[in-house]
Recover the amino acids of this structure.
C-alpha cells in the first residue's frame, strides 16, 4: 500500500468515532458586502492605514497622475521597469533623458539579475483593502509578473479609488483564486532582532502608493 | 578474515525531543539571566501589540468561533479534502506527494532536488521542515539548505536550536547576533558592522540578495492550502518568502495534512486571525498565494509534499485532536507564565510553549514511562491565558489535564517514584473518606509542624524533595479563621 492510501486509511480509522457527525460552520463575523457604503470614509481609512506602515501615500486625479508619478521618480531612479499593461499616459511626464524605461515582455521575461539592474518599478494593482491598508497585485497586465515588484528597490503603485474595498472578506470575494496574488501591506520588515521593527529587508525598501480619485 | 561491522550512524537529534525532561531543562534555562531578560521584553512587547490590534476588531469573538468551526469541519472531512486538494493542485500544473513520516518526506524532497541537478536550496521559514529535520537530511544527502528568514539564518549560522515558533532567535540579543554575523556571515565587512538592528538586517539583505537572484530551487512550508482551488498561502514579513516563491524555477512546499482548508472563502477568516494574533499587526507585510504553475510567472516546477508524521496519531484521540487546529500564531507562547520565563529550549521540541505541551507529546507518543515528552503537559500552571488568546479557541488547559492523565497511566507500574506517588494518593483518599480519620490526621499534622518547624529542617528530609525544595508548610491553625 502506498503512503497516500495508508495515510487516508489511518485518518478514516482515527475519525471513526465522529464518522456521522457534521460540523456546522457559523459565520457571525462581518462578511463581504455588495458595495461600499461610504466611499469617502473607506478611501480615507485606506490612505491613513497605508501611511501607518511607512509607505508614502498620495491622492490625485487622473489628469494629475502622470505628474505625480514623474515627481516620485525624478532624482531617485535612473531606470524604470513597467508591466506590459501600464497605460502609456502614465509615463507621459517621465523624463526620457533621465530615466530609461523598459516595458516587461511576458514572452521574453527578464531574468532576476536583469531585473536587479532597475532602480524602480511602476505598476497598477487589482484592489485595496481599507481596514488593513493592503494592496493586492494579481500578476496580470497591470500588476505585472510577481518578480517585477520584488527585485527593484522602489515600487510606485497606482490604485483607483473605486478599487478600494472595506474588509478582508470583501477582498476575498472579489479576488480570483487562480491568479498569483501578492498582498502588500507596507514595505518589508522584520522584528526578529529583539522585536525591534526594522523596515526594508528583502523586497522594495521604498513603497509609494498613489490613489487616483475617480472623476 | 575481515568482518564488516557496519558504519556507525550518527544519530540526528530529534527535532521533537532532546530527551531532557522539562523540569531538568528549565532549571538550566532559568539560570540564564540574558535569556530571561530577552524573553520578558520580547514577549511583553508582542502581547501588548496583539491586545491592541485585537481590541480594534468588533467581531473578533465571531471570527474565533468561525475559525474554530472551520478547523473542526476540516478535520472531520480530512480524507475528502486532501484528495480534493491533490486534484486541484494537479489540475493547476503542480505535483502532490504523500509522506507518512519525516524520513519519507526528507527522501522525497531530496529526490526532487537531485532531479534538478542542484546541490543548494533556499528556504523560507517552515515549522514543518524543522519538525522533520529537513536541513540535516538534505546536508547528509549533499544538498546545502540556506535559511533566508533572518531569525532562522541567525539560528543556522550559530548552529543553534530555535526557541520560539515565530521569532526563533528571540533568545538572542543584538550583541549576540552581531557576534554571530561577525563570525559566520560570509562576505560581511566586520569593521563596519554595528549591533544596530537596522545594520544587522542590512547585512543579511546584502548576503542573501545574490543568493536569491541565483537560486534554482526553493523549499517552503505553507500556512494554508485551499482544497477547492489548490491555492497555497504563505504569510510573511521580510520578503524572503516572495523571493523564494517567485524567483527559482523549482518550488517544493512541505505541509502538514492538518493545514488544509475547505474553501477559498475560509481564507477571509484566517487572514484576519493570523496577523493580529502572531505579530500584532492588522496585516503582515507580504502574503503570497499561488495555485500550481502560472504562465511566465514564477516557478514552473511546483511540488507539494503532504506530511503525516504523527498527525494521524493525534487525530485518534477525541480529546486531543483539536491540537491540530493550531495555525502556528504563537500567541499562546507570548502570554504563558511558564514559557515567558524558560523559553523554548526547555521544552526540547521545535513546538514549545502551551501548544507544544499538547502537540509534541501527541506527535511523538510516549516511548516509555520516562519519556521526556510526557513531562511537557506538566509544564503549566493551568492559568488558561493561552485559551483566551488562541485565535481558533483550542482548549489547551483541558487538553493539558487530559494529557497529564495519559502520562500518569504510562508511568503507572514502573519505578519507585510512580509507586510512591500512587501510594500517597491511595492513603490520602483513605484518610479523606472518613471524617474521624480526617480530623485525626489534622491533629497529627498540627503537632508535626509544631515539632519540626515549617521550613528549613523539613526541606532536608528525604521525602518529596522536588515539592519541598521551594515551599514552606503553611501555619496550621486550631480553628479556621473565617467565622
Amino acid at each position: 500500500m502506498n503512503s497516500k492510501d495508508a495515510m487516508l486509511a489511518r485518518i478514516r480509522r482515527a475519525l471513526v468515532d465522529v464518522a456521522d457527525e457534521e460540523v456546522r460552520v457559523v459565520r457571525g463575523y462581518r462578511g463581504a458586502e455588495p458595495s461600499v457604503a461610504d466611499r469617502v470614509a473607506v478611501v480615507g481609512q485606506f490612505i491613513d492605514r497605508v501611511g501607518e506602515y511607512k509607505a508614502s501615500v498620495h491622492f490625485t486625479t487622473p489628469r494629475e497622475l502622470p505628474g505625480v508619478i514623474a515627481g516620485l521618480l525624478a532624482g531617485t531612479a535612473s531606470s524604470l521597469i513597467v508591466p506590459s499593461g501600464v497605460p502609456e499616459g502614465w509615463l507621459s511626464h517621465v523624463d526620457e533623458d533621465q530615466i530609461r524605461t523598459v516595458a516587461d515582455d511576458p514572452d521574453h521575461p527578464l531574468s532576476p539579475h536583469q531585473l536587479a539592474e532597475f532602480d524602480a518599478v511602476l505598476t497598477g494593482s487589482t484592489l485595496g483593502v481599507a481596514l488593513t491598508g493592503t494592496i493586492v497585485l494579481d500578476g496580470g497586465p497591470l500588476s505585472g509578473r510577481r518578480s517585477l515588484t520584488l527585485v527593484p528597490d522602489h515600487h510606485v503603485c497606482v490604485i483607483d479609488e473605486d478599487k478600494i474595498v472595506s474588509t478582508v472578506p470583501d477582498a476575498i470575494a472579489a479576488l480570483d483564486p487562480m491568479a498569483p496574488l501578492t498582498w502588500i501591506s507596507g514595505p518589508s520588515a522584520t522584528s526578529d532582532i529583539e522585536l525591534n521593527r526594522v523596515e526594508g529587508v528583502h523586497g522594495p525598501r521604498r513603497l509609494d502608493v498613489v490613489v487616483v480619485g475617480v472623476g | 578474515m575481515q568482518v564488516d561491522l557496519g558504519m556507525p550512524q550518527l544519530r540526528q537529534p530529534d527535532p521533537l525531543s532532546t530527551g531532557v525532561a522539562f523540569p531538568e531543562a528549565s532549571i538550566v534555562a532559568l539560570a540564564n539571566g540574558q535569556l530571561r531578560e530577552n524573553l520578558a521584553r520580547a514577549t511583553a512587547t508582542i502581547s501588548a501589540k496583539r491586545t491592541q490590534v485585537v481590541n480594534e476588531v468588533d467581531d473578533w469573538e465571531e471570527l474565533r468561533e468561525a475559525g474554530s468551526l472551520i478547523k473542526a469541519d476540516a478535520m472531520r472531512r480530512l480524507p475528502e479534502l486532501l484528495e480534493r486538494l491533490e486534484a486541484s493542485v494537479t489540475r493547476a500544473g503542480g505535483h502532490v506527494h504523500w509522506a507518512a513520516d519525516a524520513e519519507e518526506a526528507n527522501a522525497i524532497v531530496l529526490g526532487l532536488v537531485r532531479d534538478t541537478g542542484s546541490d543548494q536550496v533556499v528556504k523560507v521559514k517552515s515549522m514543518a521542515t524543522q519538525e522533520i529535520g529537513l536541513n540535516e537530511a538534505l546536508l547528509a544527502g549533499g544538498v546545502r539548505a540556506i535559511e533566508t528568514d533572518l531569525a532562522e539564518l541567525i539560528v543556522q549560522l550559530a548552529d543553534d536550536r530555535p526557541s520560539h515558533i515565530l521569532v526563533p532567535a528571540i533568545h538572542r540579543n543584538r550583541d549576540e547576533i552581531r557576534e554571530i554575523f561577525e563570525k559566520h556571515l560570509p562576505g560581511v565587512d566586520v569593521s563596519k558592522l554595528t549591533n544596530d538592528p537596522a545594520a544587522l538586517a542590512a547585512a543579511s539583505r546584502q548576503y542573501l540578495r545574490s543568493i536569491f537572484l541565483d537560486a534554482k530551487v526553493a523549499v517552503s512550508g505553507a500556512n494554508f492550502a485551499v482544497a477547492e482551488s489548490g491555492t497555497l498561502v504563505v504569510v510573511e514579513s521580510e520578503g524572503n518568502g516572495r523571493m523564494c516563491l517567485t524567483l527559482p524555477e523549482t518550488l517544493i512546499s512541505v505541509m502538514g495534512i492538518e493545514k488544509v482548508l475547505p474553501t477559498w472563502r475560509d481564507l477571509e477568516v484566517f487572514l484576519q486571525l493570523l496577523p493580529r494574533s502572531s505579530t500584532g499587526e492588522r496585516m503582515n507585510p507580504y502574503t503570497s498565494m499561488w495555485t500550481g504553475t502560472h504562465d511566465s510567472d514564477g516557478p514552473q516546477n511546483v511540488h507539494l509534499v503532504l506530511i503525516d508524521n504523527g498527525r494521524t496519531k493525534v487525530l485518534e484521540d477525541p480529546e486531543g485532536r483539536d491540537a491540530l487546529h493550531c495555525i502556528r500564531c504563537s500567541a499562546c507562547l507570548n502570554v504563558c507564565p511558564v514559557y515567558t520565563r524558560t523559553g523554548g529550549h526547555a521544552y526540547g521540541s521545535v513546538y514549545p510553549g502551551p501548544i507544544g505541551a499538547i502537540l509534541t507529546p501527541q506527535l511523538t507518543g510516549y516511548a516509555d514511562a520516562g519519556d521526556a515528552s510526557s513531562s511537557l503537559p506538566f509544564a503549566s500552571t493551568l492559568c488558561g491565558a493561552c485559551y483566551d488568546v488562541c485565535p481558533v479557541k483550542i482548549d489547551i488547559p483541558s487538553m493539558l489535564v487530559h494529557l497529564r492523565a495519559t502520562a500518569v497511566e504510562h508511568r503507572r507500574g514502573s519505578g519507585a517514584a510512580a509507586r510512591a506517588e500512587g501510594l500517597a494518593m491511595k492513603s490520602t483518599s483513605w484518610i479523606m473518606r472518613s471524617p474521624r480519620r480526617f480530623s485525626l490526621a489534622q491533629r497529627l499534622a498540627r503537632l508535626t509542624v509544631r515539632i519540626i518547624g515549617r521550613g528549613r529542617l523539613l526541606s532536608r528530609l528525604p521525602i518529596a524533595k522536588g515539592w519541598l525544595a521551594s515551599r514552606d508548610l503553611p501555619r496550621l491553625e486550631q480553628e479556621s479563621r473565617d467565622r
